[in-house]
Amino acid sequence: MRQIDLKEYQQSGPHTLSPTEFDDLLGETKLRLSITPAAGGSSEYYMRPGSTVGAVEIGGLSILIRPKIGIPKLLSLACYAIGKVVLRDEDFTFRREDELPDVLALALASHARRAFSRGLLHGYRTEEEALHTVRGRIRFDEQIRRRFDAPLPVEVRYDEFTDDILANRLVKAAVYRLGGMRLRSPTARRGLGRVAGMLESVSLVPFPPSNVPEVAFDRLNEHYQDVVALSRLVLRHGAFEAGRGEVRASGFLMDMNFVFQEFVMVALREALRVSERVFLEREIPSLDEEGKVRLRPDLTWWRGENCVFVGDAKYKNLTDGSVPVADLCQMLAYVTALDLPGGMLIYAQGEAEPVVHEIRHAGKRLEIVALDLSGTLEDILARVGWLAEKVKARRDEALRLRQAA
Q1: How would residue 298 be classed by pLDDT, with cut points 50, 70 and 90?
Q2: What are phi and psi of 317, to 5 degrees?
Q3: Nearest 5°: phi and psi at 253?
Q4: Which of 3, 154, 169, 355 could bridge 62 with an S-S bond, Cβ 3.0-4.6 Å?
């Protein structure tokens, strides 16, 4: 299998592609790959990834797309967004040439061994069965409906103390999802194998990416937080298989737009000390009177039925540092529909310069801010605290104007 190494938002050197390989890559929409022919009409092409990073195998090609912020930073941001778990760079032991799935497999195996060092977590799971002996409570309604006047078997409900619980099922599903990929690190493959052996008695449950359940943590299971966050990351963010006729693609891909947006949302919510019921992504009143122009900003802060702040988190590659007019128009639509004095666009540092745009004839202020993603996760969260102060200032301004009206 031929390997092609790429980097997020950077154009590669020319790569030779057969007509079939060219069609396969263009047809895989999850890659968001731009392919342009090299000069001279040869079979060489330049490739430029978008915001999708990771690794994918399609046909006879293995495509690796590295994130520009680095793999440990990417996984740290994603895990914090999923479960407010603080992972550090030292939690990831890997070689520079390792791919994202390998690094994730190494981290998952390491954190699983750490979590399982006390033994597998057990808990009570409610079971409903038909037995020839009474256990737990008799389900009289089901007994009458299914058995009518037969005394046996008895429909019962009871609580089973078992290791076959949600937390362990999530870890096992993630281990098998990663184990089904072509991992290049022998250490990663062996680590996943050992974890799978420890979870032999746990059910293998398929969790679709759109429905990966959360685990409630307390002092009894808090040592599972890191491994559950990594497992949910694997299951949510793109271990996938796709097919088009005889051509199949498999891999692990993450959309940096989604990761950045989710991280900003969760980190701001924590810094502001508000719940997800009042600070969330939510549809707002339509822009037009007829209700046909629907709007859904990334960030909204609500006080009762009134929105007091609106913003968008943007992870884009801006070549000249200037904000696209389309982004400004989108934010102007939000603040107009909500009748707010202004809104905020949050970009990753290096993509846009901080600036405030006063919109003519509208009396609206659009603020552009940049979140620096360099340094440790603690450094980034400290900068989010500074950003939260700006958000509160915009909230306070909106409240003052409404009280004065």
Answers
A1: very high
A2: -100, 105
A3: -130, 140
A4: 3
